[in-house]
Amino acid sequence: EVHLVESGGGLVQTGGSLRLSCAASGFAFSVYSMNWVRQAPGKGLEWVSYMTGSSTTIYYADSVRGRFTISRDNARNSVYLQMNSLRDDDTAVYFCTTSNGALDHWGRGTLVTVSS
Amino acid sequence: DIVMTQSPDSLAVSLGERATINCKSSQSVLSSSNNKNSLAWYQQKPGQPPKLLIYWASTRESGVPDRFSGSGSGTDFTLTISSLQAEDVAVYSCQQYYSFPRTFGQGTKLEIK
Question: Is beta strand B51-55 parallel, antiparallel or unpaired with respect to B39-44?
Answer without folding.
Answer: antiparallel
